[in-house]
Write a structure and sequence with these properties.
Elements: E1 3-6, E2 16-22, E3 29-30, E4 35-40, E5 45-50, E6 54-59, E7 66-68, E8 72-77, H1 84-87, E9 106-108, E10 125-126, H2 171-180, H3 198-205, H4 232-245, E11 250-258, H5 260-273, H6 282-296, E12 302-304, E13 309-311, E14 317-319, E15 321-323, E16 326-328, E17 331-332, H7 340-355, H8 361-364, E18 369-373, E19 392-396, E20 400-406, E21 409-423, H9 429-444
Parallel strand pairs: 14-18, 18-19
Antiparallel strand pairs: 1-8, 1-10, 2-4, 2-7, 3-6, 4-5, 5-9, 6-8, 11-21, 12-13, 14-17, 15-16, 19-21, 20-21
Amino acid sequence: MATKVHMEALSPTMEEGRLVTWLKKEGDQVNEGDILAEIETDKATMELVARGSGVLRKQMIAEGGSAPVGTVIGVIAAADEDISSISGGAGTAPGTDPGAGAGEGASTAGTAPGSGPRDAGAVGESIPGPDPATGQPATAEKSAPATATTPAPTAAPATTGNGGGRVKASPLAKRLAAEAGLELKSVQGSGPGGRITKRDIEAAASQPAPAATRSAVRAPSGADYEDVPLSQMRKTIAKRLATSIGPIPTFYLTIEVDMSHLQGARERVNARLEAQGVKVSINDFIIKATAVALRQHPEVNAQWTDTAIRRFNRVHVGVAVAVEDGLITPVVRDADQLGVAEISQQVRELAKRARERKLQPDEYTGATFSISNLGMFGITEFTAIINPPEAGILAIGQVEDKVVAQFGEMITQPRMRITMSCDHRVIDGATGAKFLQTLRQYLEEPTMMLV
């Protein structure tokens, strides 16, 4: 019985996916649990795994191609089964085994339970018959999305040096190989089925290689410009932010904070935590102070709906993290209940997973308020765009020494500017100002967070 393989929705905001690579060729026997392909979503790169056994009869999208959620991208069926009604007249794929059994379908791994819709793009829809039971999802090695959006000659299956078939490699390994100037077919894979992993690339790069095996990452073309194709993440960023800055009536409030006491508190905390190998940052204190201030001002820890203003009883702070091809906002849940050291450890782990494209949907959704910090880049002040449906976001600038007047004398203080973007449908000017007063109090005197 033939089975359609669909492009599945793998995140709450995913509308289309890009097929990074097929790990099975047409005509390959597919066993339950085999990885069929790697799919780039708007947030990460996920694996499409088989839920049954059969033959991959048809690939209906080429490597590098994109398709909306719900599109049929492949067919699994018995080797001698007629699939013309699905594939538009395609016959038996070459090299198939006539004795192969019917395929049970496939599903894309990496989604957290209940994290997103699974109806329109349900994978494993049989023709005819009900969906089979799915197994446990697998987690992919994540990589920065490839730049090609249309099939290119180089996207054809590569072969090993001895003619043994496709070179199997994770997207991360492919990217590292390109950066190191290595040809994948010259690297011996240590993963399952000879698959090349990050470790194999790092080992090969550390060894002297013949000049013939290395190639330039980019050769001068003499062109006046280069069009960089949009990744799924960049498309989503553009779409979501366009729904923020236009329809949302936004106003901005800015304060300047004396960071003298907080810097001292940070030095003392780090001295005590040094033996544990923990080091907290200024940003960790800002997250903590913001969370405690939000707990005191639930009218800011809120969002707009068509019928009501929803005020949250829990404080989940989104922390903007820059990744190679865009921006993602991992969430520190119940941040007001965590210590600064716990926040520090969570933020570092989430940021690391974000840059490796390994975040699960429940790790970057559900924030009630967000923070964006560009101080480490030397930015003194900026305005951040609200991440809908949240009602506010803080833009944090760098800490810099300034001369200020205090008690009739001119002194130098470490100062930091914070700008809050507010959704005026939820937050009024006075409401936002009171919240920032509380936040300033906690930052200028960190012990007040304990009161």
